[in-house]
Amino acid sequence: MAERTPETHVIDFRAAEQLLAARDPRGAVKLLDRVLADHPESGAARLLRARAYFASAQLRAAEREFRLIVEREPDNAFAHFALGRTLQRAGRADEAVPFFRLAAALDPRPDFVEAARFGEGA
């Protein structure tokens, strides 16, 4: 196999974005696995892979990735929101609420605020 360079990682990342947009999340995960093998600290690649896992209904993997992201980037509102959506989709809605509330507190976007259910007792 040819040597991997920073340029090939960028190409793989951009191709993974395109695959996810084209509804091929499993193809995106394969490319991102290669990027993250060499750059495990890459938040952008990890977030894209988490989104691809979610899109392909690999909820345990998505949860693991989103949890790692919120641990490393506690101010990442989208990651908190996406972790909440992942938990919700996995049938763990009560566990999702704190992540939705953190997302809304960090970024009061209407979709984050609505998901946070501030007016409810949860």
From TrEMBL:
Signal peptide: none annotated. Keywords: TPR repeat. The keyword Cytoplasm does not apply. It holds the Pfam family TPR_8. It comes from the Bacteria. The keyword Hydrolase does not apply. TPR repeats lie at residues 77-110. This is Tetratricopeptide repeat protein. The lineage of its organism: Bacteria, Bacillati, Actinomycetota, Actinomycetes, Kitasatosporales.
